[in-house]
Amino acid sequence: MKRLDELLRRFAEAEKKLLQTNFLAPTTGKGKIAVRLPNGAIYFFRAVPNFSGWGIFQPTGIDTLQLVREAHEWERLAYLEALPALRVIAVHALRGDTWLCVAFNRSDARQRNFPTGPFLAHLFLSEVAPLDVVIVRTDGSNWWYDGLDTHYELERSERLRAFVQSQLESCLDAPTPLERLKRLKSHTLASVPNASPEESFACELLFAQERRKWEEQEWGRLSPEEKENLLTEQEMRWQLSLLGAQLVSVHQEGDTYLIRWRDGHREHTTVLDASLSVLSAGICLAGREQEFDLASIVSVMREAERMGWR
Question: Is residue 216 located within the same domain as residue 154?
Answer without folding.
Answer: yes
